[in-house]
């Protein structure tokens, strides 16, 4: 049986969510924590946005999940392509992209290296620099020289842009269509690539220029925006409810031996590169607690945590980027979330 979240766990999470909202970290937010056997707690605080008055966010509020796109769209689709023989993790990425001419040093990075952020590709990605170029994007990216020796961890969005382009090519289907098919099968009925219509059910993000309209229903990430909102690294909108559904689906596959997804998750929990002492990168996921916890963050103020052996998950959805740097503003909530999801093995962590 999975270890349930205690009343104390839930109270601490609610208190911290309330505190970060009261401190101005985000207009509001939702935390969902639960287990594979159906336990589920939905916590909320604040408002969807000041523009919407006192409207409290719910598990059905839609958020720009930013880099959670990597683990909610790109990562499972790579696992699916691997299972059907469309890709080889240790083959050069250029082999699963449209044919290119000339040298392509960045195209020699493997899919495994791209997934693990250990490819050595250039870390800075400015797709606006390619405006007016005379070659397709995948070729422009692959022509770039490596910036580092492959194997060292460095968070690189362009690797996931390439993975998204590769998925569309090998499947012969646009990335957003592939993702829609997956999400509908899981039951994630409110998860889509943007843009989406703005409204009371959608949390806005940042106002880039004073006096200009706030970003609302359109992707926050500039590079994803230049790709029409559909990319391997960002662009997905989802709800706390759908992310909890996704987490439960993953935990179920892991626990009951799904021949495709369960094995893909297990393989992804094997460390590929060291991030810092106590943290490793698996395939897409950050690994903590000796590999027993996997998680990922989104720049806008979202997070997804899994403890597969314990059958537990935790979702954070905020639009903290509404006020600027989401990473520092909601750090206390993310820190507590990691401690809480890890407490099955380290209960003393919550007594610090």
UniProtKB/TrEMBL annotation:
One Pfam entry name: Beta-lactamase
One GO MF term: hydrolase activity
Organism whose genome encodes this protein: Streptosporangium album
Ranges in a coiled coil: none
Protein name: CubicO group peptidase (Beta-lactamase class C family)
Keywords: Hydrolase
ATP-binding keyword on record: no
Keyword Hydrolase among record annotations: yes
Domain Beta-lactamase-related: 17-337
